[in-house]
Amino acid sequence: MNIALAVALAAVWSKVWPFLVAVLFFGLIIFIHEFGHFIFAKAFGVKVNEFALGMGPTLLKKQGKETLYALRLFPIGGFCAMEGEDESSDDERAFCNKKLWQRIIIVAAGATFNIILGLIICTCLVGSEQYVGTQEILQFHESAVSNAEGGLQVGDRILKIDGKRVFSNDDISFLMLRNNTGVYDMTVKRGGETVRLPEVHFSVRTGGNFSYDENNAISGLSAKMKRAGLKDGDVILTVNGEEVTDNESLSAAIQKDSDFVIDYTVRRGEETVTVEKVKMATVTVFDFVLLGVDKTVGNVLLGGGRYALSMSRMVYLSLFDLLRGHYGLSELAGPIGTVSVIADMAQESAKSADLSGLFTIMALITINIGLFNLLPIPALDGGRLFFMLIELIARRPVPAKYENWIHAAGMVLLLIFMAVISASDVWKWISGVGFY
C-alpha cells in the first residue's frame, strides 16, 4: 500500500474510531432500555411487532416468528412496537388487553434496566479501585483552611453538605461543586456525635477555563471562554490592566481577583484585542484526603450502590438547577454533543490506558436516561405510567383518545426541544465553540 495513503487512512481512522465507540455506547444503552420492554412483553405474552435499534430508514432487518428485528440508520433511539400499545386491538395478546400490573411492569422495565446497567457499571468502577472510598477525613493538606477553628477535623465523617445528605465519597465533590462561594454548611459525625458546622471555609480558585504555555499563549479553552470572546492561540498581555510577562505573574493576577470577572488584553496574530468582563469558572480547593478501606465483596457492592445513588441524585439536582436558571441553553448538550463528549473521553482513555472515565460517563448517561424516562412527561414511559396510576386509582382507564392526544402533544414538544438542542449542538460544532 502507498505510504501516503496508509498515513491518510490512519489519520482518518484516528478521528473516526472515537465516534464509533460513542455510537456503540449509545447503542448499548438504547438496546438495554428497549430489551427491558421486550423481554417482559414476551414474558407476559404480548405480541411484539417490531424490535428496532435506531430510527429512520431500515439498514438491516430479519423477520422472526412474529417479530421483525431491525437496525435503522440513525443511532439516536429505538423502539419495541407492541400490538395495541397506542391503539385498541381485538388481539388477546395485545398490550392494551393485558392486566394493569403487567402493563406497568412492561412500561417500567426499560428505565429499570437502564438504572440496573448503571448500578453494574458503578459497582465495577468501585471494584476497580485499590481501596473503597469512605466519607471519613484521613488528613489535611499543609495549606488547608477548612480545618480552622469551627471547621473540620481528622476523623470527621461527612454526613451533609448544604443540607443535602452525602451518600458516598463522590457526593462530596459534586455537592461542593454546586456551591462556588467556598463556604459550606456541613454536618459531620464526630466522636459518636452529630455536629453541625454552619460555615466551613475553603479556598476558591479558577479552574477548567484554559491552559497556557510558557509564553502565556492559551489553549484548551472551555466552551464558556470561547463564547466570552477568547480564542485558542491568544497570548495574554494584561489581566485587569496589569501587565503579565510570565506564567507566575499571569496565575497570580488571575487568582487575586476576588470575583473572578476579568478583563483580558491579548495578542491575536498581529492584533491587540481586549475582551472584557470574562466570568471565570471557579472550583473549590479540596484540602483534605478521605480514608480508603480494603475491598471486600460487601463493601464493593455497597459502594457501587451508593455510587449509583449519588449519580441518580446528581441527575435530579442538575434538573432542578436547570429549572432554576443555573444553566442556560448554551450549556446543554443533545445527542450530537453527548456523542462528541464520549468520543473525546474515548480518546483520552486510549492515551492514558484508563477506561474509568469513559465508563463513568456511560453510567451517568444510562442512569440519566432511566430516571428521565420515569418522569411523568407525556410520550415518555413515565407519562404512560402516570395514566396507569390514574387507572389504578379510578379503577378505569382514561379514554384512549384523550391519552393519545396528550402523548402526541408531548411528543411534538419533545421533538421541538430536541431539534433546538440539536441545532445548538450543530452550531457549537461548526463554530468550534465546543461542548464543555
Task: Walk me through what this model shows.
The chain is α+β, with helices and mostly antiparallel strands and 436 residues long. It folds into 3 domains: 17-126 and 364-431, no CATH class; 133-204 and 285-332, Roll (Pdz3 Domain); 205-282, PDZ domain (Pdz3 Domain), CATH 2.30.42. It has 10 helices and 16 strands. It has a 4-stranded antiparallel sheet, covered by helices on one side. A hairpin with a 2-residue loop joins strand 13 and strand 14 (271-279). It starts with a helix and ends in a 5-residue tail after the last helix. The model has no long low-confidence stretch (mean pLDDT 86).
Q: What's the topology here?
A:
Layout: H1 3-43, E1 48-63, E2 68-82, H2 100-128, E3 132-140, E4 157-161, E5 164-165, H3 169-177, E6 183-190, E7 193-201, E8 204-206, E9 211-212, E10 218-219, H4 223-228, E11 235-239, E12 242-243, H5 247-255, E13 261-268, E14 271-279, E15 282-284, E16 288-293, H6 297-323, H7 335-352, H8 356-373, H9 381-394, H10 400-431
Antiparallel strand pairs: 1-2, 3-16, 4-5, 4-6, 6-7, 8-15, 9-10, 11-12, 11-13, 13-14
Helix pairs in contact: 1-2, 1-7, 1-8, 2-6, 2-8, 2-9, 3-6, 6-8, 7-8
